[in-house]
Each structure stands twice: as structure tokens, then as C-alpha cells.
Amino acid sequence: MSRKKAKRFDEDEEPKAVKEMKKNKNRQINKEIKNSKKKKMTNKEKKRRRKKIILSIVALVILVLGIALGVSANRWTTLAVDMVSNESSIVIDSDGNTIAKLR
């Protein structure tokens, strides 16, 4: 006369199906929270974001132009120094003989 013991679940032990349902519910809640945050962006926030993007692009363009102008100014100064120097020009033939000196 043995009795079969009914399997009891403790409060800590839950069936797999219940655990899966809870996980799915939590995932769905998290998705809804993320979507609601994206949808709640107001016009002010959109304008601020656009302003930040435009200002960063303008700052980047100014930085690149500044670097380019600095490099070209340095090249022009070295070119001007070479043009102003008081040296005679020497005309040389194909054999390397000096033909004339120009001032």
C-alpha cells in the first residue's frame, strides 16, 4: 500500500513554461519602453539635435580650412623667399658647360 507522492513545486522552483513566459513578458516590456522613448522625442529635442549636428559640421569645416590655409601660406612664404633672393642665374648647356650668368 504505497502511496504515490505528488510532486510539489516550491515557490523557488517554477516550471520551464512559466519561466519562459516571464522572460518573454520582460522582453516585450523592454521593447515597449525603448520604442516609447524614441517616439517621445519632442520638436525642441529634434531642433537641439539638428543644431548640434550643424554646429559640429561647421566647426569641422572651419578646422579643415584653417589647416589648409596654414599649409598653403607656409608654401607661399618659402616660394616668395626663393624669388626675392639676389642670386645670379646661370645658363648651362647639355654638356654642363656654363654659357652665361644673368642678373
N-C termini distance: 130 Å
Helix content: 55-70%
> What portion of residues belong to β-strands?
5-15%
Instruction: Give me the number of helical elements.
Output: 2
For the secondary structure, the number of strands is 2
Order of helices and strands: HHEE
Task: State mean pLDDT (0 to 100 scale).
Answer: 82
Give the radius of gyration.
Answer: 40 Å
Strand count, sense and barrel status of the largest sheet are:
2 strands, antiparallel
- Poorly predicted parts: none
Strand order of the largest sheet: 1-2
Shape: elongated
Structural class: mainly alpha
Features:
mainly alpha; 103 residues; two-stranded antiparallel ribbon; elongated
Explain the overall architecture.
This protein has 2 helices and 2 strands. It has 103 residues and is mostly helical. It has a domain at 42-103. It has a two-stranded antiparallel ribbon. β1 (89-92) and β2 form a beta hairpin.
SSE blueprint:
Blueprint: H1 16-39, H2 43-84, E1 89-92, E2 98-102
Antiparallel strand pairs: 1-2
Nutshell version of this structure?
The chain is mainly alpha-helical and 103 residues long. The chain has helices at residues 16-39, 43-84, and strands spanning 89-92, 98-102. The protein has a two-stranded antiparallel ribbon.
